[in-house]
Design goal:
Structural class: mainly alpha
CATH class: Mainly Alpha
Radius of gyration: 22 Å
Strand order of the largest sheet: 1-2
CATH architecture: Up-down Bundle
Largest sheet: 2 strands, antiparallel
Oligomer: single chain
Number of domains: 1
Shape: globular
CATH superfamily: Amino acid/polyamine transporter I
C-alpha cells in the first residue's frame, strides 16, 4: 500500500489591517495626486476642456465594477480576487489571464511611476538650485535620469513593503494626509481665483471632439480610478473581510471628489494648450501659476509623495496576486513563501520590485518621459478595462439566481455589473480598432497606433502562454476546478449571504 502524503496547509498571511489601512493602500495605489498632476494633462490632450465630464462618465462603470468586487469578496475573500472569481464562475483560462494581466499592468504602472518619481525629485532639486550633478545637466523630462533616480526610491519602498503591510499602510496614510491638504488648498484657491470662466460645457460629454476621443478619454479616466481594488488584494490580511469592501468604496468616492475638484481647478487656472502641453510637469506648473516660491513647490512635493506611496502600494497588491496564484501552483513556489518574521510574501515582493526596475530600464527606448507615460497608460487602460469587465461578468454569472428571487438585488448584482462590463469591453474594442486603423506601419512611438495596440495584446498573449505552462507543465488543479485556495483552504460558498 502506498502511503498518502499528508495534506499541506496553504500559506497564510498575517491579519493586521483595519479599514483605514485598506483605504491608505487603495488610495495610494489609485494615486489621486499623480493622476491629477499627470493624467489630467494627458486626458485634456485628448478630450479638451471636458475633464469633469469624462471623470464623471468613467466613474459610472467603475462604480458598477466596485459593486461586483464587493459582492464577490463577501462570498469568497481571496488575495487573488479576480483571478479566483473569474476562474470559478467563467473559465479557468480567463481567470488566469485576469490575474496575469493585472500583475503585468501593475508592473508597467510601477515602471512609469518610477520615472514620475524621479522626475518630481529632479524638479525639486532644480527648485532648490541644484541644476547640475557631477557635470551632468539635470533634466526632469529625461527618462534616463528620472528612471535612475526613481529606481533608487523603488528599492527603498519595496524593502519597506517587505517588513510589514501595516507599517507600509501607516507610511502611506501620512503621505496621503499631506497630499490631500495641499490638493484641497491649491485646487480650492484655483477655483476661486482662476482667470478662465467656469462653463457648464465642461460637464457635457457630447461636446467631446470625436467618438475616438471620447473612448480614449474614458479609458484614460478609468485608468485614473484603477487601484481601488487594491483594498481587496489585502482582504486576507484585514481583520474583517467587510473592511476591504468599505475601504474600496471609500477610496472610489474620495477619488471622484478629488478628480472633479482637480479638473475644474485646472481648467479655471490653465488654458487648454497649457493643460495639454506640460505633461508630467503639469501639477508643478499649476502651482507656479497660483503661488510664489516657496509655496509654489508644495504641489510638486505632494506629487513626489504620491508617486512614492503609489510605488509602494503597487508592489503590495501585485505580490498578493502572485501569492494567490502560486498557492494554486499556477506560478512557481517562490511567490507564496511567507516570511515567518514579517508575515508577508517577502520574496515575491522583492521580485516584483526587481521586475518593475527592469521594465523601467527597458522603457528607455522611448526617449521622452511624456511618450513613455502616454504609451503605458494607453496600454494599461485596455487591459484594466478587460480585467474589470471579466470580473464584473463573473459576478453576474455567480449571482444570476437573484434575478428570480429578488429583482432589486438582481439589478444590483447582475444587471449593473453586466452593463458596466459591456461598456468597458465596448470602449476597449473601439479604442483598439481606432489604434489599428490610425497607422500603416509599426514604430516604437507613443503616437503610433500599431504600437499602442501591440502593447496590450502582448500582455494578453503572454498570459495565455503562461497559462499553458501552468496547465500542462505545472499541472495545476486550478485548470480542472477553477477554484483557488483560500486562506483557510476551504471551498467558497456559492450562495449570497443574507
Amino acid at each position: 500500500m502506498t502511503d498518502t502524503p499528508p495534506a499541506v496547509d496553504p500559506p497564510v498571511l498575517r491579519k493586521s489591517l483595519g479599514v483605514l489601512d485598506g483605504v491608505a493602500i487603495a488610495a495610494s495605489s489609485t494615486a489621486a495626486t499623480t493622476s491629477i498632476g499627470i493624467g489630467l494633462g494627458v486626458t485634456a490632450g485628448v478630450v479638451g476642456l471636458h475633464l469633469p465630464a469624462i471623470m464623471l462618465l468613467a466613474f459610472l462603470p467603475v462604480l458598477g465594477i466596485a459593486g461586483a468586487y464587493t459582492r464577490l469578496n463577501r462570498v469568497e475573500p481571496n488575495a487573488g480576487n479576480g483571478y479566483v472569481w473569474v476562474g470559478r464562475s467563467l473559465n479557468p483560462w480567463l481567470g488566469f489571464m485576469v490575474g496575469w494581466v493585472s500583475i503585468v499592468a501593475t508592473v508597467a504602472f510601477l515602471a512609469y511611476t518610477t520615472a514620475v518619481t524621479g522626475s518630481a525629485l529632479i524638479q525639486l532639486a532644480g527648485d532648490a538650485g541644484l541644476h547640475r550633478l557631477g557635470g551632468l545637466d539635470l533634466d526632469p523630462g529625461s527618462t534616463a535620469q528620472t528612471t535612475a533616480v526613481g529606481i533608487v526610491v523603488l528599492v527603498a519602498v519595496t524593502l519597506t513593503a517587505v517588513t510589514g503591510v501595516r507599517k507600509a499602510a501607516r507610511l502611506q496614510g501620512w503621505l496621503l494626509v499631506f497630499e490631500y491638504v495641499v490638493l484641497l488648498g491649491f485646487c480650492g484657491y484655483g477655483i476661486v481665483t482662476g482667470p478662465h470662466d467656469f462653463s457648464l460645457s465642461w460637464f457635457d460629454p457630447f461636446a467631446v471632439p470625436s467618438p475616438t476621443a471620447l473612448a480614449q478619454g474614458l479609458l484614460l479616466s478609468v485608468f485614473c480610478y484603477w487601484g481601488f481594488e487594491a483594498a481587496f488584494t489585502v482582504t486576507e490580511e484585514v481583520r474583517d473581510p467587510r473592511d476591504a469592501s468599505r475601504a474600496g468604496f471609500t477610496t472610489l468616492f474620495t477619488m471622484l471628489a478629488l478628480f472633479l475638484l482637480g479638473s475644474v481647478a485646472f481648467q479655471r487656472v490653465l488654458s487648454e494648450e497649457e493643460l495639454a502641453g506640460h505633461g508630467a510637469e503639469g501639477l508643478a506648473f499649476f502651482g507656479e501659476r497660483l503661488a510664489d516660491q516657496p509655496l509654489a513647490v508644495l504641489p510638486l512635493v505632494a506629487l513626489m509623495f504620491s508617486a512614492v506611496a503609489s510605488l509602494q502600494a503597487g508592489v503590495i497588491p501585485a505580490a498578493r496576486g502572485m501569492f494567490a496564484m502560486s498557492r494554486d501552483r499556477t506560478l512557481g513556489p517562490v511567490w507564496s513563501k511567507v516570511s515567518p518574521r514579517y508575515g508577508t510574501p517577502a520574496a515575491g515582493t522583492l521580485l516584483i520590485g526587481a521586475l518593475a526596475a527592469a521594465v523601467a530600464t527597458l522603457a528607455l527606448v522611448i526617449p521622452r518621459l511624456a511618450d513613455m507615460i502616454m504609451a503605458t497608460v494607453s496600454a494599461v487602460g485596455i487591459v484594466v478595462a478587460l480585467s474589470y469587465a471579466l470580473t464584473a461578468l463573473a459576478a453576474a454569472v455567480r449571482f444570476r439566481g437573484l434575478l428570480r428571487e429578488d429583482w432589486r438585488e438582481g439589478m444590483r448584482a447582475v444587471v449593473v455589473p453586466t452593463l458596466s462590463a459591456l461598456s468597458l469591453l465596448g470602449l476597449g474594442g473601439y479604442l483598439g480598432w481606432s489604434f489599428y486603423t490610425s497607422a500603416d506601419h509599426f514604430e516604437v512611438s507613443a503616437d503610433n497606433g500599431w504600437f499602442l495596440l501591440a502593447t496590450p495584446l502582448a500582455m494578453i498573449a503572454s498570459g495565455f502562454v503562461a497559462a499553458a505552462w501552468a496547465r500542462w507543465v505545472r499541472k495545476s488543479s486550478y485548470f480542472r476546478t477553477g477554484q483557488g485556495t483560500s486562506a483557510d483552504a476551504m471551498e467558497a460558498e456559492l450562495v449570497v449571504p443574507r
